Amino acid sequence: MTDAHTPPVRGRILVVDDQRNMRATTALLLRAEHYTVFEAATGEEALAQLAGGSIDLLLTDLKMEPMDGLTLLRRALEVAPRLQVIMMTAFGSIESAVEAMRLGAYDYVTKSFKESELRYRVERALERARLLRDVDNLATDFNQRHGLSSLVGRSPAMRELTSRLMRVAQSDATVLIQGESGTGKELVARALHAHSRRKSRSFVPVNCAAISESLLESELFGHAKGAFTGAVKARRGLFEEADGGTLFIDEVTETSPTFQSKLLRALQEGEVRRVGESTALRVDVRTVAATNRDIEQEVREKRFRQDLYYRLNVVTLRVPPLRERLEDVPALAEHFLERANARSPKPKRLSAAAVTHLMGYDFPGNVRELENLVEQAAALAESDELLPEDFPLRVSRLTPAHGTPSIAVLEGQGGGPGRLVSTAGPTLAQVVEEAERHAITQALERHGVDLARVADELGVSSTTLWRKMKRLNLRPPSEPTRE
To answer: Given this structure, which CATH class describes domain 12-138?
Structure first.
């Protein structure tokens, strides 16, 4: 039992110094301030401890062997981007300390520091770490309260989608959601409804591709008793069911021109007429439609009414395919595995090799395919850790950070899980680096030399962006390459 008079733990600090006496003295001073302190004699030892993800502050010497402080700084921020770092340096190495801050360190202190100075700088760094955690917690709470928790991903494409969704949600504007099959268009529609003024009323979905043309009109508009064979009693349609709420019309391009004209009239007039009746009923419905086809091409080829297209396309939300946001694959895979574990007596975990393997796949089935792969692997894997061979991918195109694409082939029968027989794939760090390179390059193409807007879109500080661009040797498109 914890003593009521024992001060609470104030933060978790890792002290790294290859000089044992300096390391022990610094750790002793910080423990006296009731911090939880860990020690490491080398950079590699420090990285191993950081992999646990529970360190708030890294306090490291600049001059060490074989890995120096700057190298440790770069690698530590790749492992834990929100980590706060304070560099300890001799007086003659101030320039190197300044360089460390440009690379992402929070602060530096000379080794001739007074105890009060170290305490002050450590407290400031830990306060920043607490503020960043609070921001993350608020963002998580915001997503949960506003129905966005199912939209997993922090890629630029997903942040742009979420931002646009939040701007349009409060209005009653008709929204057209475009995206390939399996990208999560209905989840986006539900998030729109959850953050709208209609969230206390019904969200009513209908998939036009799953209902025959002869029944679709009755399904949406309702019918009178005896309107057709089998109509033994009057029935309300989905427009009426959604009155005051949101009607989600999925795969709207699967409908015929005849039905499209009736749908257009309902949207324009705000009223519906049940099949077999002559009296129109007023409805107050916010309509959200979705399609996996190129709807503009459908209009050009006269398969979809142009006037209905304009009625539906007041605001467009494009849901990106998974291959355009591969950096979200680890978070999505963990999300699906967490759901699978909740239904299983034997929880599983993802290995780094499995994540690398998944990030090298094109996912033609998008997020739905990834969900299926993770659920199948969790159900069939014999080990507690999911490995590359637990995923039924016959060929996964793994692209190293440099060089030609490599091939990982899984042998198996009937498309089931196989055995990994050959691979020349990259490390997880290389895959993540390629994802970062792709995201930054796209943002630079959109904003050019305006690095503040690039950093804002990517959700990082200007310092972090500068550091990553330098490491990846990236420059704004209009900036000439220096020979």
So the answer is: alpha beta
